[in-house]
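Example record used in the benchmark description.
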Amino acid sequence: MSESRIIRPYPADDHDHHDDFNDLGLNADMNMLARPVMDRRRVLSLGLLGIGVLVGCGAGALGSTPGTGTSTGGGAGTDTCPAAIPSETAGPYPADGSAASGQSLNVLTRSGIVRPDLRTSLGTGHVAAGVPLTLTLRLVNVNASCAPLAGYAVYLWHCTQDGNYSMYSPATVGEDYLRGVQAAGPDGTVTFTTIFPGCYMGRWPHIHFEVYPTLASATTAGNKIQTSQLALPEATCREVYATTGYSASVRNLNSISLARDNVFSDGHSSQMAAITGSPSAGYAAALTVGLTR
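Model output (structure tokens):
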């Protein structure tokens, strides 16, 4: 399925690099047309390197979300077309309306749960302590050349810096921070502001999330289309855990490995977040989440 040449409606100010892309075939043309205008300009500005992007990477390449620079993780970041992310357990503390830990807690129906900043408890106003983390997930359809899944929703949650889960752990049962929902924009991305989670006994540092087909449907676990977890790279974890408030995490991290973790031991290449930053400035993490719909 290819053809030698096709006339393309490029923006007027993109003409300087047209000759580099004139004879790449239909696949490259379709990849270019699937991109936003600003992304086309980025590809065109790369010249011959842009040719490789169009032919080899598809429409999901060169994502413009934060956190995709130098990475201490081994994951896909947000600038490649990954394999479909595996389904994982929601664990015992999802608060998504499902029966977990002998309860049916549901934070998804609380006013204010659709929010980008997860650090404040909706009920008490208390703020979760910890090193700042900005997390961007890019939702893509792996069965459609990794086209962005605009309008899909993500419910995300994780533990505190000392390993507790809001709404469940005795120390934080009255809190509902570090939980929130966001709808994906036109480029398929959702961004959360939160804190770097701690490491508790028996689990590798991780973040839980569920994907829903619409924001309106993100009110109960019965509507979700995917449940998974992302892993955090060891080098970054050790940087963070050397700071105040994470002392227990150092000991817990020393007693676990990705190979022994009950979620990531069977592979984590599509779940490892790419991270940049520092303990003093905070971190930006990114992951492209491949879905089959």
